[in-house]
Amino acid sequence: MFSVTFAIIIPFIIAALVPFIYRRFKLLHIGWFVMLVPITLFLMLARLIPSVASGKTYIHTYNWIPSLNINFTTYLDGLSMILGLLITGVGSLVILYSIYYLSTKESLQHFYCYLLLFMGAMLGVVFSDNLMVLYVFWELTSVSSFLLIAFWNHRKASRLGAQKAMLITVSGGIAMLVGFIMLHTMSDTFSIREIIANVGDLTEHALFIPTMILVLLGAFTKSAQFPFHIWLPDAMEAPTPVSAYLHSATMVKAGIYLVARFTPVFGGDQLWFWVVSGVGMITLFWGSFNAVRQTDLKALLAYSTISQLGLIMSLLGLGSIALQYGYSEESIIYTQATFAALFHLINHSTFKGALFMVVGILDHELGTRDIRRLGGLMTFMPFTFTVGVIGSLSMAGLPLFNGFLSKEMFFAATVQIMNADVFSLQSLGIIFPIIAWIASVFTFVYCMIIIFKTFLGPVQPEKLDKPLHEAPVGMLISPIILSVFVVGIFFFPNLLGGYILKPSMESIYPTFGDPANLTPSIHAWHGIKPELLMTIGVVLVGALLYRLLKKWKPVYGLLSSRYTLNAYYNNFLSFAESKSTNVTNKYMTGLLRDYLVYIYLFFILTVGGFFFYSGAFSISFSMDVRIRAYEVILVGVMAVAAVAMLFSKSRMTATLLNGVLGYSIAIFFVIFRAPDLALTQLVVESITTALFLLAFSHLPDWKKERVPSKTKITNAVISVGTGAVVVLVALAVLNYDRFETISAFFENAYELAGGANIVNAILGDFRGFDTMLEVVVLFIAGLGVYTMIKLRAKKGDENIENK
Amino acid sequence: MKINDVILRTVTRIVVFIILTFGVYLFLSGHNTPGGGFIGGLVLASAIVLLYLSNDIEKVQKSLPLDFKLVAASGVLLATGTGLGSLLFGVPFMSQTFAYFDLPVFGKTELTTVTIFEAGVALAVVGVVVTIILSISEDE
Prior knowledge:
The complex is a heterodimer of chains A (803) and B (140). Chain A has 803 residues and is an all-alpha fold. Chain A is built from 34 helices and two strands.
């Protein structure tokens, strides 16, 4: 549909305009203007909720590169609707919040430009139906996340955090790209809908399992699943609005979206079930376990986000088992795990977004987010306290808040999976409820830490740099709106279920018929069932553990810092850096002569080698026309100039002799009736000669170099070899007939492109894509020359990094 | 050292206009006869370089106050923009089209989107060439 395509494009257009608007309206905070974008998009999407809820989907295709199956196809269904609403909804609130968080002294035009880039890219990820387009947007979210994490790029930690996030998510992205290409090989289409429609042919394919693993790698790195989660805590160096938006509500959900999107393709497979639910469970436990030890509130929230992402991921894994059974009365019960996953996805965005904003408020108003310096803030910051408590209790899974509902459904799903009789779940299924319960106990403990250590207990004003006071109203609006949702969803969960979750169940289980059957009615009270007992147990044991926190916290000291994943990451990075420095130093000598040797050797080996092995060096002179006298003279002039160059004493002479060669070639073009080439050659020659002369004025005199005779001989052999290959190839091409000739097509240039000049019709029309990229390359080269000469650091300039 | 370049300067003053006209002619004629965006751009660039060679840089910059980096950037934007523009009409990226119109002065004229694309190429070439030559020559 038109408007969905525009939803992707608009943020990019506004991002391009932001710098200009920023310059024009200095007085107004640019955020107010930027905020209009997500609000508009949110309303646009919200208008479509009723029709999507009734099962309608919107699809629109722009032909982009149809010859390669790559088209800009946007697809709006229930699943992408959830993510789209989150991206635009939370986006609006975060931008409103950031207006008060970031002062006008910061480089706001960059911040909002990156943020809009991210928003557009993220919408692109969820609305794209074409795998290649999805991949491009996927990597673009990584890039914009990199830029946002490194927003305060004068800080070393920010840069390192950004680098880590980039390296991990982009490596995963590349693995995913390979997976996508494999999917294309198997199904011969890049369209996700078509792949899902023909899924039956795929499961038997030899590439099915490798594809699954590669796609999962992309999803796991993006959604910070164990063991790739280590980038998320470091990404907390970003400004808090960014953390709330990218690193809790939207970007890290992209991996979950991908898993949900591909569940119809891979779900039902045993490996998919175990990997997705297993990795999710490990992440759930490891995240919550590590969150308890954090003293920085933002790091605590980062680990808690990892843990909650693991929870959603494992639910998607558990839910995929329904596809193994196929549609029946009994298998519907397993789809409830997926329902819970989507439900918790929304709930998590509401309460975690609110909590991040609360921590941002503390950081902004009090100058610290270290729980050892905070305490007793309840009386000074009543509103912040209320929002913080609502968010924490919802995260802990207590009633009156939406987290309770999805947490109960999560417990129910883990208990339910024990009844499954496939994938050896009869014996192994018991581990799911156990891990889920233990992890939830830790979740409860860190939620208590947030409440008690920051808002209750003794006040420590002497440890704070700023006086205690409540945050400005503007900063409170967004978290309050989110916490209203936290409470509101608890009381009216079925509104969400019926309008938002129901259509997305159809996206994940397309073969299961009417999605109304898959949509349970959510109730806070459903009798005394295992899940309720588990929640009661979590509260009791969690409260006990929190009381005894001091007693058992030394457990964390047992984990040696040498064997952590972070240490492995750092070691790997420094190892790779030193190795590649070694290798690079071996061949990058700084001598132009050496580089030319590499280029020519490569040329001889590949071009000469190819012609030699394919037996294409067949030369015959039968077709040749008679050589005329002035051609001989011209060749004689060129030969003399070329040889004379070897003996010239100054660079100036050499350049001029080189010019003789170039102009002689131009004359050859004239003789052989190629006026285009002759013209181009003449002008290029004039300009390069001028350029050479300019450049040489900066170089020292041309001294005779002392080179060992061995090098001289090698160089002579290589240069003669290169010349020989060029001559042989030139002679051989005349007889080369392996490829079908394509010139007949171009001869119709006047009818096809309206141009009588075939050369230009090829350049501008038939092969216009090449020319466009060449122009871009030329531009990049020009910028490179400019920056290297104009912007290089002068001697004695201070290093602006690490201030 | 002060070179006496009166002749060069006088000749340049006339020749530059001839070259510039030639460049524009090459650019426009490229569709059906030898020429085109790249070569037209190069000729324009060489005229500007000639100006810089015969006069000092400050003087030229005063009479030709262009930031050639911007010229190059706008060229690239134009060239890629025509590619994207074709998407607006629901045809694949980089589709070009042409049509014949009856214009008051020129009579039956062919107008084509390739010309816009080629204009981008020409601007990019002029901008990049002059930028490179200026940066090298201004370097101390």
